[in-house]
Amino acid sequence: MTDQELEVYFRQMNELFRTEGWQALLKDLALNVPVINSVEHTKDVNDLYFRKGQLNILGTLLNLEETTRMGQEESQREEQEDFDPLMGTYADV
Q1: Is 30:61 a contact under the CB 8 Å cutoff?
Q2: Is the pTM of this model over 0.85?
Q3: Coil vs helix vs strand at 3
């Protein structure tokens, strides 16, 4: 991804995170975690692996905002490290 594409991506993701729909989705997903995490109604090993996959996806979505924030901070940190203030230019990477 180019720097410009990355900037657009982070801006769009941050806009998404501020919507009421995103907040409602996270609330609904968080309510489902205890039900999916319970092994009481697991029928067999395949069902157990299916639930494991569901929890993995839920975790990814529930942590997406924080993961994106960390990626954005890392991207900004790398950009600052590449900038040479004496030359007023960015280092060739």
Answers
A1: no
A2: no
A3: helix
Smallest CA-to-CA distance from 25 within 51, 62, 52 is with 62
84 pairs with which residues across the strands? 89
Contacts of 61 (CB under 8 A, 6+ apart): 25, 26, 29
Q: What is the pLDDT of residues 40-91, one digit of tens each?
A: 889 999 999 999 999 999 999 999 999 999 999 999 988 888 766 666 666 6
DSSP 19: S
Residue type for position 59: G
Name the residue with tokens 């806009």. Answer: 15
Residue 90 identity (one-letter amino acid)? Y
